[in-house]
Specification:
about 260 residues; alpha/beta; about 20% strand; globular
């Protein structure tokens, strides 16, 4: 009985430490989200993108090595850079897609100077990042761009994500969601992707689905707009045509999927 009691106490102790670590990470994450270094216009979109909840779901820790695929203007970089000050952040995209990070480093070297970049070669589907070196790979609203360049193009990116992740590492994907009953041809031009298509791409690369979240869902988005997903904010491609209507809908309905590279 004494051994059982000691085992139960030890188990409780480990669980308590894990919960405390999660709480500490969440405090650090919330601090990064509310940091004064963020662009106000970016912060205003938190209600659509739910960054703290999304990154917590992807289990990103402050000491992780994180790769952000196609970081664009750096919307998530503004949060990840201060959050990962004890870790490592690497932006990956074709060379001309890394200008957002370069601009942030020029504007605020103290916050973004440690952010690294690694060009992605579309021809080979490779980067210079070492295999099995990253804890987490993240991509936000990019899969449709890869898919519109051809299925093979998307497959290359997922394969590279798998290569650079450590065994047991996480691939976090947020993507505009196309209803499963729709014609798959819409994926080639609408900016929306089916969950099944994204899962198929990840599964082919070797990933397994770890969990899915509705944190970025938007039931107002019917995904059948005249200019595809770009009809909605922030693009508002129709400009003043039905602008109030689309602003009331908000940003797109999005899948949020945590994939995992199987542990060795």
């Amino acid at each position: 009985m004494r051994h059982l009691t000691l085992f139960a106490a030890a188990t409780l102790g480990v669980a308590t430490v894990a919960i405390a670590a999660q709480d500490t990470n969440r405090v650090a994450l919330d601090t990064a989200v509310t940091a004064g270094t963020r662009t106000p216009a970016n912060s205003a979109r938190d209600r659509y993108r739910n960054p703290a909840e999304t990154l917590a779901f992807f289990q990103v820790k402050p000491t992780d090595t994180v790769i952000e695929l196609w970081p664009g203007g750096g919307w998530y970089t503004e949060i990840l850079a201060p959050y990962l000050k004890a870790g490592r952040l690497i932006g990956v995209a074709p060379a001309n897609g890394l200008r957002g990070i370069e601009g942030l480093r020029t504007k605020d070297a103290s916050t973004y100077g440690r952010v690294e970049t690694a060009p992605y070669d579309p021809a080979t589907g490779m980067t210079a990042i070492d295999a099995s070196s990253a804890d987490v790979v993240l991509t936000f609203r990019n899969v449709h761009n890869w898919r519109m360049g051809g299925v093979e193009n998307a497959e290359k990116v997922f394969a590279e994500a798998y290569r650079v992740l450590k065994p047991g590492g996480v691939l976090g994907v947020v993507e505009h969601r196309l209803p499963e009953a729709r014609d798959a041809g819409a994926e080639e031009k609408s900016g929306y992707m089916k969950v099944s298509s994204v899962v198929a791409l990840a599964t082919k690369a070797g990933f397994t689905v770890d969990a899915q979240s509705e944190v970025n869902a938007n039931p107002k988005d019917t995904a059948d707009w005249p200019q595809g997903v770009w009809t909605l904010p922030p693009s508002l491609r129709l400009k003043d045509v039905d602008r109030a209507k689309y602003q009331a809908i908000g940003e797109s309905d999005r899948m949020t999927i945590r994939f995992r590279k199987p542990a060795a």
